Amino acid sequence: xxxxxxxxxxxxxxxxxxxxxxxxxxxxxxxxxxxxxxxxxxxxxxxxxxxxxxxxxxxxxxxxxxxxxxxxxxxxxxxxxxxxxxxxxxxxxxxxxxxxxxxxxxxxxxxxxxxxxxxxxxxxxxxxxxxxxxxxxxxxxxxxxxxxxxxxxxxxxxxxxxxxxxxxxxxxxxxxxxxxxxxxxxxxxxxxxxxxxxxxxxxxxxxxxxxxxxxxxxxxxxxxxxxxxxxxxxxxxxxxxxxxxxxxxxxxxxxxxxxxxxxxxxxxxxxxxxxxxxxxxxxxxxxxxxxxxxxxxxxxxxxxxxxxxxxxxxxxxxxxxxxxxxxxxxxxxxxxxxxxxxxxxxxxxxxxxxxxxxxxxxxxxxxxxxxxxxxxxxxxxxxxxxxxxxxxxxxxxxxxxxxxxxxxxxxxxxxxxxxxxxxxxxxxxxxxxxxxxxxxxxxxxxxxxxx
Amino acid sequence: xxxxxxxxxxxxxxxxxxxxxxxxxxxxxxxxxxxxxxxxxxxxxxxxxxxxxxxxxxxxxxxxxxxxxxxxxxxxxxxxxxxxxxxxxxxxxxxxxxxxxxxxxxxxxxxxxxxxxxxxxxxxxxxxxxxxxxxxxxxxxxxxxxxxxxxxxxxxxxxxxxxxxxxxxxxxxxxxxxxxxxxxxxxxxxxxxxxxxxxxxxxxxxxxxxxxxxxxxxxxxxxxxxxxxxxxxxxxxxxxxxxxxxxxxxxxxxxxxxxxxxxxxxxxxxxxxxxxxxxxxxxxxxxxxxxxxxxxxxxxxxxxxxxxxxxxxxxxxxxxxxxxxxxxxxxxxxxxxxxxxxxxxxxxxxxxxxxxxxxxxxxxxxxxxxxxxxxxxxxxxxxxxxxxxxxxxxxxxxxxxxxxxxxxxxxxxxxxxxxxxxxxxxxxxxxxxxxxxxxxxxxxxxxxxxxxxxxxxxxxxxxxxxxxxxxxxxxxxxxxxxxxx
Lengths: 451, 485
Fold this sequence. Notes:
- The complex is a heterodimer.
- Chain A folds into 2 domains: 67-77 and 349-450, Aspartate Aminotransferase, domain 1 (Alpha-Beta Complex), CATH 3.90.1150; 81-341, Aspartate Aminotransferase, domain 2.
- The longest helix of chain A has 38 residues, at 333-370.
- Chain A is an alpha/beta fold.
- Chain A has 13 helices and 15 strands.
- By secondary structure, chain B is of the alpha/beta class.
- Chain B has 2 domains: 83-340, Type I PLP-dependent aspartate aminotransferase-like (Major domain) (Aspartate Aminotransferase, domain 2, 3-Layer(aba) Sandwich); 344-463, Aspartate Aminotransferase, domain 1, CATH 3.90.1150.10.
- Chain B is built from 15 helices and 12 strands.
- Chain B has helices at 6-9, 45-56, 79-85, 88-91, 103-120, 132-149, 167-174, 192-198, 221-230, 329-340, 343-365, 395-404, 432-451, 453-458, 470-476; strands at residues 124-126, 157-161, 178-182, 203-209, 234-239, 258-261, 281-283, 295-300, 309-313, 381-384, 411-412, 421-424.
- In chain B, strand 4, helix 9 (221-230) and strand 5 form a beta-alpha-beta unit.
- In chain B, helix 3 (79-85) packs across helix 10 (329-340), helix 5 (103-120) packs across helix 10 and helix 6 crosses helix 7 (167-174).
- The longest helix of chain B has 23 residues, at 343-365.
- Chain B starts with 5 loop residues before the first helix and ends in a 9-residue tail after the last helix.
């Protein structure tokens, strides 16, 4: 219990209010429904709760128990100890949205630094203070484009090589707007690296073209033509990026995209079974007034000291109400702080090193697997970053199940979301995986083929 | 008192955390699109730790003091929640692991769904929405899809009381509805006569916050719901103020069709300086199949020997997926722990003490501040932060002056229907001494407003920075440590 009231205090407070009992404060609540009997277990003490949660946790096997090659939108990177120690400061995590700048400079400046780091990482002009995750940031990109064209361009084109969960989320967000079409990700259009059949769909009615970089299969596709053609047709272009990859690869800004969104989970945020993560949203300066979400700007206080405030709030729901482009208010403040601390700790060289380690180890693993009899890379000609697709000699679920018994999570069974990809596994390799573990993985794959 | 930015602290060549050298044979880098430059700051680990520690000291927080920010339920965030959410067996699970390897997670989520159902009186709960506003979007999309499935294409109107949070109208227009504001009556309830004139064949639904943002329990709630239902509409409950109703009233019992929970308000999960929140949604039985996917279910009941087996389920008429994976699991762990530690008596105690604290504080504060709706409040109340005889003093001045007395200000200028609103929510975790000090500070400020108004206009004087030039921020629009070319 976290209520501090003593019986004497309760009595005194009721006297001041002028009622006899606490129940008297609830007389307006319909009597027949008042004070329901709830069917809940007996309350636990802190000690018991701690034990119960340990027991629940022990019913799982985690990525500490397995060697994990699972990615597909969530990545097992090393998180320096200082990240969580700083996040645990009550001054950060028990504060709320910095409405009062005089007593919120910590959150405001950290958010300003986050915006700066995201703009640098992506090569874009500006970043907002965050969205819920990469998928909702992608949906908000479509939303921005719809409002930018005042609803006159109706088509949202999404590549089939964009994370399937992102595509689902974009559809959920767009369904309220009756006349919007979300397309381009059907099996017929496919996902050839030349993107030609997808590019053919871009027309004058297209509000935005959304592709992933590296794509869901880990491939680094050259989108130069796609961006140019989209702009010729008057459409905006959004990249869904992986932040770790941008330690090695040309940033989205250099492709002249209008919006770059991604999930910031790889930047110091634990896997935590899928959330909370971090939606990164960056764009060009010219879209700043169409941007959803919070923005922190630099200014001065009365004494001329540098200070930070929430700015352009007139775009947001609490001012514009039904005229605002999005309803977002609470976002992922603490996760944005994690990413800010993570990038500050790694710095220029550490971040590049992590990206390079991912690249090196993934390529070693891919090479070894491709050499195994019965296995091959699904896209041997296309460059990739730290994730790649293998074609397997047996159904993917069989292989995944077998390796699970060897305490290896082999990767993501692509047939779950791509009916045309039977016997395909999406494999991710991060800096946490050693050569020894890759060799064991390869050995286990070899063995399962012989069984 | 200001702190340099991480870019200003950066020194070329410094490095915080080091990583091992590669242990695999050197692989060739790609020929195309290699990055040439990435300008990240360069700092030692101590530089970083000190920088963010210094920044944290510039923040006001619940751990540091009283934070009566109305409508935000800034209650104490128990430390045990932080500890269990970080248990490696939970925090280090990958969302795409086979479900048999994460039965602990699925058990926890399933039990939390059941707890929330029991507490709210709803038939089924989805944990996936990421925040309250996303929960509202779920609600609006369910209303939309429900009418589409029933081929009621004319139902395009959503009614929203004028006291509602801005997210309600924003959500409705995101979902393609026409928003019609409903006035409040002189007691702060939904105006029944106005409601009746809007109950026609174009009505899709009503979004209702109860207790409303004035902190008042809507005395007509059952009639409001009946009228909307009779007109063929659905009633969405904004659960932002559920803290006042725990163990007191189950919204499902009075006929709400849909409601979101704010785990970061009602169930003590931290606000994180602006998130992450978590906004599960509960629905009545007739809407169960519309919930966003996925939902945790039992696929095999098990027996004495074997525990039940949990997995995900996709509702048949689902509005779809709201985000990646399954919601903010880390937040679910905290809320689960909080509910498990309270049980039925503890939950009712939360609401009772929240309402006791609010009424006690209201009784004291109304001696000096005008209370526009003078009746028993629930978990919060709204006073006017202005006096007719001193027109130059505003709610904002009072708020800023409160900082000099060591308190976080209440919510300002909301709800919109109260002139110069100060919205005060003490929560149940504050003791009487704190409430007394806060009331005394407000009393002293009311006196200063008459005798030394310059103290209010100049305030705050004791904070790390003074009042900020917000016009300059919006005009210059400096959003990064450098200005884009």
